[in-house]
Amino acid sequence: MKKTYLLTPGPTPIPENVLALSAKPILHHRTPQFVKLMEDVKVQLKYVFQTKNDVLLLASTGTGAMDAAVTNLFKKGDTVITLNAGKFGERWTKIAKAYGLNPVEIKVEPGQSVTVGQVEQALNKNPNTRGVLFQASETSTGVAMPTREICDLVRKRENCISVVDAITALGVFDLRMDEWGIDVLITGSQKALMLPPGLACISLSDKAWKWSESSDIPKFYFDLAKERKALAKGQTAWTPAVSIIIGLQETLKMIKDEGLENVFKRHETLARATRAGIKALGLEMLAKDSPSIAMTAVLVPSEIKDGKGIPKTMRDKYGVTIAGGQDELEGKIFRLTHFGYVDKFDILIGIGALELTLKDLGYTKFEFGAGTGAVLKALASS
Amino acid sequence: MKKTYLLTPGPTPIPENVLALSAKPILHHRTPQFVKLMEDVKVQLKYVFQTKNDVLLLASTGTGAMDAAVTNLFKKGDTVITLNAGKFGERWTKIAKAYGLNPVEIKVEPGQSVTVGQVEQALNKNPNTRGVLFQASETSTGVAMPTREICDLVRKRENCISVVDAITALGVFDLRMDEWGIDVLITGSQKALMLPPGLACISLSDKAWKWSESSDIPKFYFDLAKERKALAKGQTAWTPAVSIIIGLQETLKMIKDEGLENVFKRHETLARATRAGIKALGLEMLAKDSPSIAMTAVLVPSEIKDGKGIPKTMRDKYGVTIAGGQDELEGKIFRLTHFGYVDKFDILIGIGALELTLKDLGYTKFEFGAGTGAVLKALASS
To answer: Cβ atoms within 10 A of the Cβ of A23, count?
Structure first.
């Protein structure tokens, strides 16, 4: 018998009361009952997105919403700046290319964040830039981007919009869509919204909606104007992911009840406790200057030759699933995630399982309890 | 948002796959489907009870089965020896009195176990004793009784049977009903069988069935002969607790798949890890000589005046429910349970929450991580 724990950057754990909703009879979507559900979800999503704009629901993952942002807002040949601080930044470049845009990519080393200065320089060099596409939190490296400052730069330019992938950021830390002038904000259900994968959320500012009017890229499933019209009637253009939306109503209520500020504080506490544990074990984070509080990417210590062994042992021997590194970071880092339906003792488990794993793999320069003790100390002082 | 954890001696946590069965349509009990279920459960229960005898299912808690044991096996005026090492031993005395038996009680101090010598002496003093009634594991103090040795004494006497309350023992540690000559063995669903409360299991040896023939105490609901007849047809005498029995089929399969020996080993490991944590925090166990591996009863340290504050703070501030002391032990001990659907990281959580709680309540003579470190060390060496 082995219990299992999930500390990956998505899917994240789902609250028991939300899982229980899956056992309720399914709802048909073209009914007044569904419209009532959507009207509630619409209001609550605006609270989490910190916007007065509509938040559209797509039956897709977050990548679908990224695809939709590009096809709905831009024209073939448009110059866009993409910020590549890792795998998900690179994805913006790939999507832009796939639809015939002209992406100017700012690429930084893994673990680094793109600076506002770099973005400003690129904007000055490419004055015809129609959009800046980036991640609020780069999931592959655990880096946070200066979202507020970048959006501030962009909002001053009449011919440019900001497109923010907040898939592992929304509901984790503060992102004020309207106040900061974020033009497009995207998230997915299996992250801080604490739901199964299969639902994406996207919101557009008035400025972004204007962009959509001149878009010439063909689209059908991801036609945001059509979604906007449907949403006005409490509907979606196509069959919605009904069961996930039923769950969404519940998780949005949980977030509202806890209060966004408290949700952010909780995530900060969990990040601090995790990092105290990591440091006490003599380990180093990949993101030194600008870590995202969504996750902690840790460098595999030189004493461990098989870096992939860390997530493997944690999962197969101890039942704790964490993420390894992707692409060129494979075997070089491992990622402990601490957002969504995660609380203090999940961190204790993560660091406890890590202690057992490190000793198993031959990294022994710590006493058992060093990491968990630092976690408890950080929790006690928060 | 706060997750909750259950480390009490019952109810204990229920596996997710068993909880999910509650969402399945209910089954009617007078059907071939239910009979098929019962036939499977019958076989698997014998494995867990380590007996060839029938294991009867009662729609009651364990106390109902204790009541049934007395009313079905004895006659008014019968002398029985009851072993009172705590609240549950005392319950045997109370039940015996309620039905007009003549209980001779051996009472020991809380934390002590009754010795075989004491039982032998009492048997010699009361040669007409028709039963010895006791707990394999006394839940109120965390003490284990010398079950094998006591039953060995009793089996040599033609006019006496052993009646063992194994409510927090069966499926926790080794109890060989047939091999050791246990005459009556009792458990409840909400313990190591990992189910909701509401179902009791009781098995009788051939010798015990003979006792039942001469019983003159009136009974109706708890008529074990009637239950035995019903069970032969894959039924119960009265409406069975269907949903718990559906869950029982699943948890019995889990126990069979893990293997009884491994189940016992797991509980031993968890008990050892818990006790390593307790010791490292400078705390003492109530049961010094003969602790049950089902739970760890810990003395409230003198530095903490309000002993009831420990379970209260753990539950209300940290979401970890443990048990306090009962009756005269109230405020003097607290009990961490480690059986059933419990694994290594539950122990880490229990000791971690205890560290936070102890500091909160002014017991500070340890460094954070002392307890959890000892837990991890014990787990690593098991």
So the answer is: 11
- Positive or negative, the CA dihedral B280, B283, B289, B293 is negative
Same domain, A264 and A232: no
Give A226-251 pLDDT, tens digit per residue.
999 999 999 999 999 999 999 999 99
pLDDT at B274: 98
Higher model confidence: residue A34 or residue A23? A34
What is the 8-class DSSP label of residue A243? Answer: H
d(CA A170, CA A188): 9
Determine the residue among A7, A260, A314, A368 to mutate to test chain B binding: the one whose Cβ has the most chain B Cβ atoms within 10 Å: A368
Question: Do residues B87 and B234 share a domain?
Answer: yes
- Which residues of B touch chain A, with CB atoms under 8 Å apart? 1-3, 5, 20, 23, 254, 258, 263, 266, 318-320, 341, 343-346, 348-349, 352-353, 355-356, 359-360, 367-377, 379-380
List, for residues A339-378, the tens digit of each pLDDT value.
999 999 999 999 999 999 999 999 999 999 999 999 999 9
A180 contacts A205 by C-beta, under 8 angstroms: no
From B228, B257, B286, give the residue that closes a domain: B257
Average pLDDT value for residue range A291-295: 97
Identity at B135, one-letter amino acid code: Q
Q: Which domain holds residue A280?
A: 5-11+259-380
Give pTM, 2 decimals.
0.94
Angle formed at CA B30 by CA B27 and CA B35, multiple of 5 degrees: 80
Between chains, do A374 and B368 touch, taking CB under 8 Å as contact? Answer: yes
